[in-house]
Amino acid sequence: MLRFEVTEEPSEGVDGERVMYVPGRGVFRATMSANGDLVVPEDRLRALLSGNAGAEAIRHGMEKLLGTSWDAELEPYRHAGDGAPATWLTQVS
């Protein structure tokens, strides 16, 4: 029952990335801006708005685009890492 979240911090000229995995939900991946916000591509927003008429359907679609369900399931595990040392991975050429 593995659960994980991996965050690549943005750097100069490169967007960051966030990957989450929860059993039963699969993998969620999103691009992150320099301030840590998730970036939802324009084409995904257009598809959501063109395919759904009701406010409830749009709300549900936005929650899916933002990974709300993955966040909710991973939140209890995040506080366990408060104050714990981070492991920084670097690329060696």
Question: Helices and strands in order, then pairings?
Answer:
Blueprint: E1 4-8, E2 16-22, E3 26-32, E4 38-39, H1 42-51, H2 55-66, H3 68-78
Antiparallel strand pairs: 1-2, 2-3, 3-4
Helix pairs in contact: 1-2
Q: Helix-strand pattern, N to C?
A: EEEEHHH
Number of β-strand runs = 4
Helix content: 25-40%
Shape, principal axes of CA atoms: globular
Given as residue ranges, the uncertain stretches (5+ residues, pLDDT < 50) are none
Strand content: 15-25%
- Overall pLDDT: 86
Number of domains: 1
Q: In terms of structural class, how would the helical and strand content be classed?
A: alpha+beta
Q: Number of DSSP helices?
A: 3
Spatial order of strands in the largest sheet: 1-2-3-4
Characterize the largest beta sheet: strand count, sense, and whether it forms a barrel. Answer: 4 strands, antiparallel
Determine Rg (CA atoms, Å).
16 Å
Write up what this structure looks like.
This protein has 93 residues and is α+β, with helices and mostly antiparallel strands. It has one domain (4-81). It has 3 helices and 4 strands; from the N terminus they run E-E-E-E-H-H-H. The protein has helices at residues 42-51, 55-66, 68-78, and strands at residues 4-8, 16-22, 26-32, 38-39. The chain has a 4-stranded antiparallel sheet, covered by helices on one side. Helix 1 packs antiparallel against helix 2 (55-66). It starts with a strand and ends in a 15-residue tail after the last helix.
